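Hello forum,

I keep getting stuck at the same step: I have a sequence, I want structure tokens, and every attempt I make locally crashes halfway through. Rather than fight my setup again tonight, could one of you with a working pipeline run this one for me? It's a single chain of 581 residues.
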Amino acid sequence: MARPAPQAIVDWAAYRRLFTPKLVLALREGYGGERLRSDVLAGLTVAILALPLSMAIAIGAGVTPDKGLVSTVVAGVLISALGGSRFQVGGPAAAFIVIVANIIDKHGHDGLLTATLLAGLMLMLAGFLQLGTYIKYVPGPVILGFTSGIGAVILVGQVKDFLGLAGDLPSDVFGRVRALAGSLGSANPSAFLLAAATLATIIGLRRWRPRWPGLLIAVVGASVLGWLLKLPVETIGTRFGGIPSALPAPALPDLSWAKISEVFPTAFTLAFLIGVESLLSAVAADAIAGTRHRSNMEVVAQGVANVATPLFGGLPATGVIARTGTNIAAGAATPLSGVLHALIVLAFMLLLAPLAAYLTLPCLAAVLVSVAWRLLDLGEVWRFVLRAPWDDRVVLLSTLFLTVLVDLNVAISVGVVLASMLFMHRMADAQSATLDAHGVAPDRDDGDTPRSAVLDMPLPESVRVFELRGPLFFGASASIAGALDGLRRWPRVLLLRMRDVPLIDATGISALEDLAALCARHECRIIMSGLQPQPRQALHRYGFLRSRRVILASNSFIAIEKAKALVGEPDARTPTPPARG
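Reply #2:
Ran it on my machine without issues. Output:
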């Protein structure tokens, strides 16, 4: 009797499908003239945003502006062509200014190129090992802390060009503040007026004409004004001699063992930040466009892009939320729009590079000031400090102050470790609540957990039940959106059962905020049942229950009656509740 063929340990066909780029999937759907027009228009819109921003980021990081454009071209093509997100647009990010400047200060530009290439290889390995799913599980307070800290550092770094001050600045924040205070007497009124006019234009257009390319209009308009009035301000031409009109020839960075061992810890941090930033951008794109990205394919694409950009002398690149959001708002149809945005930036380098020499540095400093202010997000930080659970506040403030005063590597390491330790403390407290009269309650497998009778009760078509189980913390909150993927028709009332949620943290509250916003868009009311003390206190302190008009019920049977009353079912009868509601 013939033996059956042994089953493969790994389903390689399914594994390969995980790494099919979204561009390939989009093209398989069919591609015609209408989609092409949409992608060209979106690509042009994003390119107009990326042009001044890429140069400003490069200057802020301490390199020549062409390095930002090169990164936009090379990484922009690869991230959109190979990525796992339908609308992701990649390039240099303002959040990386601080770490890039620190790498250059410690290891030189060659060290930056080596660290970027190593980070790209790490990301590729992480993606192929399917670790991309876990990279995004970074606590919300850590992300808010280091992005706000980065915003503060960028603001301090742009004061020199914003005011037209003379002299060089040290790399540490305290040294920079002292040097800036000592050089205020050398301020250039012309530079300040141009920078202030640029910043005012950016803010005004963002508020009253959000669809206009505010960054480009502000920078070009102020630079033309400076040229016409012959104002004594620095330009790209006077400081850097302009930008080249072609991509440089590719060349390998220093890959000696000594250099690799020197920059390896920095490369690891860089890979981590690229992965987190790109996946946050992909998640944001999904929330806006209603799509679903592939984390591991996206991480691989980011890795390929960051292996390629240092070959051309470029900066680290990642998915950028601002450009991705602009891409969606401009009507992009497929990932080809991101590829086209990079090619349009390349066309600018090839055809209009000499004009870049007239762009004034105070105007580009104003661009970074506007970006840094949005990164700093004082309103959100203050709201978080006032309303978030105390341990999340400790993590946020520790990460923020360490980013500003010490180092981004230290800040992220301490923030993640501290968040993990406090989470373990939370879990210990939550587990103590499961004790019964005889000691520790026995462990149960998911398959042994009895299904609630509420889930099987007949309900009106316009009422649906959504049950959450377990702690709603930074590692679990991502499951909420996935659980609603199959919901084709939205109900009028969503009954959110919370009785098995012993605790919730700030990231969990943020996930509920996203769910509530989604319900609001579909005109769906939320009824919460069975809130335990810690989640009730946290949601109340954060203002979620009041701002989202959430209806509370002590148990699911009362919640069902309230839901029936909302949808207008007149003969609702309260069923006899079981011992536990």
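The longest strand covers residues 493-500. If your local run keeps crashing, start a new thread with the error log.
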